[in-house]
Amino acid sequence: MFETTVIYSILAVIATVIVCFVISTLLPGIERKYIHARIQQRIGPPVTSPGIMAPIKFLYKENVEPSSPVPALYKILPILCFLVVLFLLIAITPYAFAIPALASLVAVVGLLKVEEICYVLMGALSKSVMSVRMPFPDRVKGAAHRNTTRSFIEDISARRSLRMITYGSFPFYLALFAPVTQARSIFLQDIVAYQQVHGPFLFTVSGAIAAIVFFIGYMILLNEYPFSIIKAKCDVIEGPYMEYASKYRSIVFITRGFMMLTLGVLFSVLFIGIPPTVLSPTILINIFVVLVFVFMMGIFSAFTPVFTNRQLLPSILGATLLGILAIVLGLL
Fold first, then answer.
1. Of the four, 109, 141, 157, 304, which is 20 to 30 A from 117 by CA?
2. A Pfam family this protein belongs to (predicted)?
3. How far is CA 332 from CA 105, 176, 203, 210, 328, in A?
4. Can you spell out the DSSP letters for 55-117?
């Protein structure tokens, strides 16, 4: 009986992951065609282009050997990011609730932090040809600053990534722990069970405020405008992704869509109390929440420029104060 239950749960998890993955490949296309393109009054690319056709196209491109002190680690990082998002999705399925060490907010935060740290490592380990082979002042004969330290585009991006890890994503983690004030537990099973009895946390004052903070953190973790300083096209171009080509660039594209879906599903677990499973029609609610987040992010990012530190710090400070307010109200 026990073995049958285990096999049944494993198959359910695999089916849930497959369905979620397929949906995630459509999310970037939905954002670009039905939001950005409509706002910009153009037709836009096919829905399958950014999340399906682009990764397939990159698979057939010639790979570029990165200019990196540790090329093997640099190549592994996109795969690690994808695996982190995959484990995060598995952790928030109801079948993972039997493993408390995995299905807890501590594990969720840990996985998200690993994903964030990967951006720092990507930038720190990349020395692209766009930076290395340019005649910087410290390399030009007769230059006034020949002994100055060279600064690579990816180095700038890595420092920005570290800054976002230090304080940029802090509001998001405050929002994650806001439901704990009601459920009095950090385990996802207890948070879901509490909401199934008392109603969604989203429909409380504390939950509504925390939801706003969650959405801001959602955009920060996805490096979306106006919080995309680590890969801003205006100065660092692609930032930590500069030297990823071929299959590695393909994985980067796939991971972004997968991350969009996983964070949306995480919201539905923590704020509505509905974990994802293909064996229940409630997965439609998970998908609906994911689409709402995609549309909101697309609209918001279309009308905002990239924040500099002057705008970024006050925005994050304001979101942090809102997150603290949500937790305080939840404790009352």
1. 304
2. NADHdh
3. 21, 18, 16, 15, 7
4. HHHHHTSPP-----SSHHHHHHHHHHHHHHHHHHHHHTSGGGGG-TTTSBHHHHHHHHHHHHH
